[in-house]
Design goal:
Length: 128
């Protein structure tokens, strides 16, 4: 089976990063306000800047589980579309909220001084 990869440009240093499943990482982090987030990110190979691809809360992860259950049942397309739309809106709002926010790991170390999200137009080429 062929490996799916995408090339993304680092906004900080301009490095072209090739991303596959191995390069994407997940980690629970929290803000100064005590709110917890599960972020999926990659680290630039050159400058080590962390670029967030997706962020979730416990609520959006539960929506995702419901979405998968409905998908596996293969019955109610309308219900699937409704949950999918709510999940996408929640993740979009979360992305706006977290962009530039200082986040910490479970040991209270700084995870990032300002979380940055990858933009869709950062993709150079996709081998899908």
């Amino acid at each position: 089976m062929e490996k799916l990869t995408v090339q993304k440009v680092c906004e900080k240093c301009g490095e072209v990063n090739e991303l596959g499943a191995e390069e994407l990482k997940r980690q629970w982090v929290h803000s100064d306000f005590g709110e917890y987030y599960n972020v999926m990110y990659y680290e630039c190979k050159r400058c080590k800047e962390k670029h967030c691809v997706q962020a979730d809360t416990k609520q959006t992860l539960e929506m995702r589980r419901k979405l998968i259950r409905v998908l596996l049942q293969r019955k109610d397309r309308g219900k699937y579309n409704k949950i999918d739309k709510k999940l996408n809106e929640a993740r979009y709002n979360l992305k706006r909220k977290l962009n530039g926010l200082k986040l910490y790991d479970e040991n209270e170390n700084i995870f990032t001084n300002g979380l940055t999200f990858s933009k869709e137009d950062d993709i150079i080429d996709s081998e899908m």
